[in-house]
Backbone:
């Protein structure tokens, strides 16, 4: 549905050139919720604005439904934009108009008949739960309510795509959750394709199907949320995930466990609906290794539980290797985080 | 002063009428020039709706040049231009041209400031939803800035009244003319004070109405 191909964007600030985006490639399928995460200045906002060409790439292609937007004239581009809603961190509502008019204005601009506007706006305000606020001005609304108006406005033209620019970053956690639920709801009800950018992993975890991680204008990692969350490859991704689960191995652990002799710390990622206990039992009995859970946490990814375990296993070297290869077949993702003996000696030597 | 009431009243009413006439006509025409000028000064700047470096620089320079001249000098300096346009450089007609030339760039600059107060995010929101530039200017920017624009017009109007008084120098009539002829040349204090009081009341009323209107339009409470 959305395809960004080899996108580069260079801004000139005075005489210095800033590369905001470097060879970015992203594809978003219809009906999917795609998240882009990164620290501020990573280029996510510029990336999001490429999709409706609020920012034009220096080079590369922007395609929506196979149509290259860069080849369109002004009028054709405006017609494409009508099918792309957008919501913002700062809401960007019209302060001089009430809630009803905020949603209605874009319909009026498109010469929708008056009774049709009335019907459409009422329907949208009902959808976002603001049916009793139609006559209020934005100044009298809470942040969450303002964002609901923003969402209703973005949906007014029956878009196929919704772009969310840090839509929950100005909201408290509880309000954030209610807005995210609304986004999930409209994604399901209306089959809307959603692209959101955020700096909060929590937002990605609650809503997204796939995620791209950005750093310094580059997409450094992308994939399904389950894949990226269970096996983050890049340091930045790991930093973001630390807010959800902390699987760092502390020196204290190393000192405590290292005494057990030759052993490993394994990091197991598994879908929480597949029971893990039997697997650990199997390896202890079949390969006579001793297992010990050091850290465990479960995170829900859009309702699907993802378990992260740090397991300490010790025993004969040959048995350990067999046990690990067995686990690799049985469990969603396994990696050997630490060969403990070696590291233990290093720590002690310090 | 009271015994001269009958003598002075028609003098004041005529002068007030002339002032209002000059201010009214030049304000309307200057607004028709000044508001689009303000819009252009905003949308032609870099990164805005219709970036155009040259147009922005030209308009900006013209506004700066005119804005650096005090009205009394501007009025005298453009006499040939005034004669070209209205055929005379004196009287009410002769005053209206320099008043417009003086106040239109001022309105342009004030409107520019008011329009820049509109968060670019709002403009981006409507650009993103496929609104045209004309729609964004007329239905979003100007409307969002209307409270600020009203305050600007209030300031411009008061400035215009001040300039109109100076037009008394070229025999334009109005309160300035009255104060000049009676108050200054004949040292007729009652007329001088009468003019001062009328001006103070006039400006107070305009400023209060402007503030009230701007507050009403702001919709923040």
Residues:
């Amino acid at each position: 549905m959305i395809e960004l191909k080899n996108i580069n964007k260079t801004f000139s600030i005075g005489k210095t050139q800033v590369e905001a985006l470097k060879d970015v490639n992203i594809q978003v399928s219809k009906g999917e919720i795609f998240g882009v995460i990164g620290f501020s200045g990573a280029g996510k906002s510029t990336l999001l604005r490429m999709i409706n060409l609020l920012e034009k790439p220096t080079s590369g292609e922007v395609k929506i439904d196979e149509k290259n937007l860069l080849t369109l004239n002004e009028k054709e581009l405006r017609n494409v934009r009508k099918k792309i809603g957008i919501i913002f961190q700062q809401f960007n509502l019209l302060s001089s108009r009430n809630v009803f008019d905020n949603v209605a204005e874009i319909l009026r601009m498109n010469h929708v008949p008056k009774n049709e506007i009335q019907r459409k706006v009422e329907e949208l305000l009902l959808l976002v739960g603001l049916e009793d606020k139609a006559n209020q001005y934005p100044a009298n609304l809470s942040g969450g309510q303002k964002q609901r108006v923003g969402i209703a406005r973005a949906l007014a033209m029956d878009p196929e795509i919704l772009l969310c620019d840090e839509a929950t970053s100005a909201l408290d956690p509880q309000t954030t959750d209610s807005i995210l639920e609304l986004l999930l709801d409209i994604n399901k009800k209306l089959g809307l394709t959603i692209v959101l950018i955020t700096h909060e992993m929590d937002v990605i975890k609650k809503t997204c199907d796939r995620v791209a991680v950005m750093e310094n204008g580059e997409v450094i990692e992308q994939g399904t949320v389950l894949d990226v969350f269970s096996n983050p490859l890049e340091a930045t991704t790991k930093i973001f995930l630390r807010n959800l689960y902390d699987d760092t191995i502390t020196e204290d652990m190393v000192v405590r466990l290292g005494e057990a002799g030759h052993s490993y710390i394994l990091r197991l990622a598994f879908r929480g609906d597949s029971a893990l206990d039997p697997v650990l039992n199997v390896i202890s009995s079949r390969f006579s290794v001793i297992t010990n859970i050091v850290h465990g946490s479960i995170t829900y990814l859009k309702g699907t539980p993802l378990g992260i375990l740090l397991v300490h296993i010790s025993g004969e070297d040959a048995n350990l290797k067999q046990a690990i290869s067995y686990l690799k077949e049985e469990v969603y993702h396994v990696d050997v985080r630490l060969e403990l003996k070696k590291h233990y000696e290093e720590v002690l030597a310090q | 002063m009271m015994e001269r009431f009958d003598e002075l009243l028609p003098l004041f009413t005529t002068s007030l009428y002339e002032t209002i006439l000059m201010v009214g006509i030049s304000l309307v025409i200057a607004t028709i020039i000044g508001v689009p000028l303000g819009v252009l000064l905003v949308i032609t700047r870099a990164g805005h709706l219709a970036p155009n470096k040259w147009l922005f620089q030209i308009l900006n320079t013209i506004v700066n040049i005119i804005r650096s001249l005090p009205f009394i000098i501007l009025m005298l300096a453009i006499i040939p231009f005034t004669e070209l346009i209205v055929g005379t450089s004196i009287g009410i007609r002769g005053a209206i041209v320099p008043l417009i030339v003086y106040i239109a760039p001022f309105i342009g600059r004030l409107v520019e400031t008011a329009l820049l107060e509109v968060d670019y995010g709002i403009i981006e929101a409507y650009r993103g939803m496929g609104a045209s530039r004309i729609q964004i200017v007329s239905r979003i920017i100007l409307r969002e800035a209307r409270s600020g624009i009203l305050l600007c017009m209030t300031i411009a109007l008061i400035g215009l009244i001040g300039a109109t008084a100076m037009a008394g120098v070229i025999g334009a009539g109005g309160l300035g003319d009255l104060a000049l002829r009676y108050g200054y040349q004949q040292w007729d204090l009652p007329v001088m004070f009468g003019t001062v009081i009328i001006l103070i009341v006039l400006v107070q009323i305009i400023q209060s109405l402007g503030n009230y209107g701007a507050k009403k339009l702001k919709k923040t409470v």
